Amino acid sequence: MRSSEYELHPIITNDKINLSRHELGHFWMAHLCGFEAHGLALSQDHGGCTISYPLEAADFSAIYAESPLRAAGWLVRTLAVIRAGCYVEIVGDQVGQELRGQDLDDTARWREHVVGVYGVDGWTKAYAASYQALQSWYRHAQVKRVFRECAPAVARQQTMSRYGPTALKLRYDLIPAYRTGKTRMAASYSSVTSDNANSR
Predict the structure, then answer these.
(1) pLDDT > 70: what percent of the chain?
(2) Is 198 strand, coil or helix?
(3) DSSP label at 80?
(4) What is the DSSP string of 115-170?
(5) Which of 81, 130, 146, 192 is most open to solvent, judged by the fewest CB atoms within 10 Å of its CB?
(6) Which domains does the chain have, with CATH numbers?
(7) Closest Cα partner for 49 from 84, 8, 73?
(8) DSSP readout, 6-67?
(9) Nearest-angstrom CA–CA distance, 24 and 59
(10) What are phi and psi of 64, to 5 degrees?
């Protein structure tokens, strides 16, 4: 009988696989959202993904004053990138793990700044739109396959360069899923903009 510590892979522990999936989730979602993902790296018990975001939480109100559409688009995409890490981890055959650690802190910081513009209801709608787009993307069988097959490779080599997502799309024939994910994300931030355009 296989040990519960090796449910996700025969020779790599669940913790290591989920660490790999977590950082790969951030990395790939950033690429999908049009943000510059410079690379990821894993150590023994933690990982990191270097991403250049177009907007910081503290600047949200200023960007919103210039362009509600642009602010909403960047907000929904940024929240999806932050949420993707924990979402793609698998515990007991279930995805969608709760936010924790730095991801939880980052989300709380965004909420603090966005509530001042959108109000609590507007924040809730924005977060929900981002989460729904993430769910829609992950439902694709090919997306799940990429995580299943790439997470062990990333766990072993412990790094991925900025060109990783392009290689993944080509290797796993992900162009249709990639385009659908982008369409879903665009629809989500357009909806958020419509709901919150007159919030001030």
Answers:
(1) 82
(2) coil
(3) H
(4) HHHHHHHHHHHHHHHHHHHHHHHHTSHHHHHHHHHHHHHHHHH-EEETTHHHHHHH
(5) 146
(6) 4-196 (1.20.58)
(7) 84
(8) GSS-SSS-HHHHHHHHHHHHHHHHHHHTT-EEEEEEE-SS-EEEEEE-S--GGGHHHHHHH-
(9) 27
(10) -60, -40
Contact between 81 and 29 under an 8 Å Cβ cutoff? The reply is yes
Closest CA to 27 of 171, 188, 146: 146
Nearest to 45, CA basis, from 3, 93, 101: 101
> Is the confidence at residue 45, as pLDDT, over 50?
yes
Residue 50 has phi, psi (to 5 degrees) of -95, 115
Residue for token pair 């890490």: 85
In DSSP terms, 39 is beta-bridged to 50, 161
Mean pLDDT confidence for 160-188: 70
Sign of the torsion angle spanned by Cα atoms 146, 152, 156, 159: positive
Residues 6+ apart with CB under 8 A from 190: 69, 72
Q: What is the pTM of this model?
A: 0.86
